[in-house]
Design brief:
The chain is α/β, with parallel strands linked by helices. The protein folds into 3 domains: 182 residues, Rossmann fold, CATH 3.40.50; 121 residues, N-(1-d-carboxylethyl)-l-norvaline Dehydrogenase, domain 2 (Orthogonal Bundle); 145 residues, Hotdog Thioesterase (Thiol Ester Dehydrase, Chain A). It contains 16 helices and 14 strands. Helix 6 links the parallel strand 7 and strand 8. Helix 9 packs across helix 10. The longest helix is centred in the middle third of the chain and has 22 residues.
Length: 495
């Protein structure tokens, strides 16, 4: 990210606006050019959707947002920038003219990229100055959430440009996929087009409705694809014998005339009317804005779930969160007057509210657990340390629910270090509602320092113990908190 300070964006449609959101939320300044009078409003709406999505996706501290500047010309957009990202409509002549103009006005060292979903970079580069710094950077909608970006150069693109572009995209939380050589449609869209052709035939032949086609994907293979892709899925289908067995068993079926991938149904008015009518019924009265919010919420749920596995797109999210935390340091706010640490603040999201109208039980534990994570970062348990195989594990938790939190409430957590030794941490969190300072929950946690490689508890290193000693000394005169050391005392069942 040290290389990327300002980007010039050409086009503020669905993709261009998504790029603006992705870069702005990564702390990069954006100059945006689009001749449409509605460009500014469209881009701002996309940025707001992105803010909403990222608030739900991660609690990691995002950097200060970049500055968005709307400009009136291509030269104004690209002068002095580190990256130019063109996202105009898929018309080769239009893109070629924009890229040529941008190449004349941008700094010679700036990367110039196109978001084209399938046009060949060698054709788009005609007329450019310094075509060796031109590359395809093809994202997927919504750009601010989906991490994949296909990076493809032409025969004039230097290998250094491909490497630099991949590093830039990686620096804003994306997963670059290097396309080995230019080909129409690149990789992902060629796969998507094959599925799209067959889907159109199924609807045209009245085998399935658009709803049934979508159901076949979202309730079945789509769930597998989000984690395993295609080849790894089929490898598993081969059982312990693996891919060779799968190919031997199912390969002959490829010769059967199951699909019609080489043909395209005629998109006459009858078929278009059928698709439009069924698509309208599928939308069930929801507006485009409603569907965009629903799409984002579903993507956040999938990405959040995958982040816990550290696999597929979850690896990208986990790495991005780790980077955000490391850039922000320990993220600690100034301690309270009595010496308690103030490590975590959060707004109660509408999605956290249960059928009783207040924050559900699991979210209390989530907020307290996030505070424990913040404490660990405060004492130096960050990415490089965790990579050594050592960390603290929570082995016991006791929560008291003392009050209610509602959507929009701002919650602040105050933390005590009740005790520690070489292997143990004893923490006590008080969860308060900022509006009236009411304590609505407490959480008491015991953690052990472990070495995952050895599978046992081990002493923490001296530098971490020194930080713990310092915190303990600053809180030495505090009284023992009410509720600490309690256990559940209730009636016992008769023997």
């Amino acid at each position: 990210m040290s290389e990327l300070r300002t980007v010039g964006l050409l086009g503020a449609g669905v993709i261009g606006g998504g790029w603006a959101a992705r870069f702005l939320l990564a702390g990069v300044d954006v100059r945006l050019y689009d001749p449409s009078p509605a460009a500014a409003e469209t881009a701002l709406q996309t940025v707001e959707r992105a803010r909403r999505a990222w608030r739900r996706l991660t609690l990691a501290p995002l950097p200060a947002e970049g500055r968005l500047q709307l400009v009136d010309s291509v030269p104004d957009a690209v002068a002095g920038v580190d990256l130019v990202q063109e996202s105009a409509p898929e018309r080769e002549d239009l893109k070629r003219d924009l890229l040529a103009e941008a190449s004349r006005a941008a700094p010679p060292e700036a990367i110039i990229a196109t978001s084209t979903s399938g046009l060949l970079p060698s054709r788009l580069a005609r007329g450019m100055t310094h075509p060796e710094r031109f590359v395809v950077g093809h994202p997927f909608n919504p750009v601010y959430l989906l991490p994949l970006v296909e990076v493809c150069g032409s025969d004039q693109t230097s290998p250094e440009t491909v490497t630099r572009a991949a590093d830039v995209y990686r620096g804003v939380g994306m997963r670059p996929l290097i396309v080995r050589r230019e080909i129409d449609g690149f990789i992902a869209d060629r796969l998507l087009e094959a599925l799209w052709r067959e889907a159109l035939w199924l609807v045209a032949d009245d085998v399935a409705t658009v709803q049934e086609v979508d159901d076949a994907i979202r309730f079945g293979a789509g769930l597998r694809w989000s984690a395993m892709g295609t080849f790894l899925t089929y490898r598993l289908a081969g059982g312990t014998a693996g891919m060779r067995h799968f190919m031997a068993q199912f390969g002959p079926a490829l010769q059967l005339p199951w699909t019609r991938l080489t043909d395209v149904p005629e998109l006459d008015e009858a078929l278009l009317d059928k698709i439009v009518e069924q698509s309208d019924a599928q939308a069930d009265g929801r507006s485009v804005a409603d569907l965009e919010r629903l799409r984002d919420d579903c993507l956040v749920a999938v990405l959040r779930g995958l982040a816990g596995t550290g696999f597929a797109a979850g690896e990208v999210i986990a790495d991005t969160e780790r980077t955000l935390y490391e850039r922000a340091g320990d993220g600690a706010l100034p301690p309270l007057d009595d010496g308690r640490l103030r490590l975590h603040e959060v707004l109660v999201a509408p999605a956290w509210i249960d059928y009783n109208g207040h924050m559900t039980e699991s979210r209390y534990l989530e907020v307290l657990a996030d505070t424990t994570d913040a404490f660990l970062r405060r004492i130096g348990i960050l990415g490089p340390y965790i990579d050594t195989g050592r960390s603290y594990y929570t082995v016991e938790t006791h929560i008291r629910h003392l009050g209610e939190a509602h959507a929009g409430d701002r919650l602040v957590v105050a933390t005590r270090l009740l005790g520690h030794d070489a292997k143990r941490l004893h923490l006590f969190h008080e969860l308060t509602r900022a509006e009236d300072a009411a304590v609505i929950a407490t959480g008491e946690h015991m953690l052990l320092h472990v070495d995952r490689n050895e599978g046992r508890t081990v002493p923490a290193p001296d530098e971490i113990l020194a930080v713990l000693d310092e915190i303990a000394e600053s809180q030495r005169d505090l009284p023992w908190p009410e509720g600490a050391g309690n256990r559940v005392n209730g009636p016992r069942a008769a023997a």
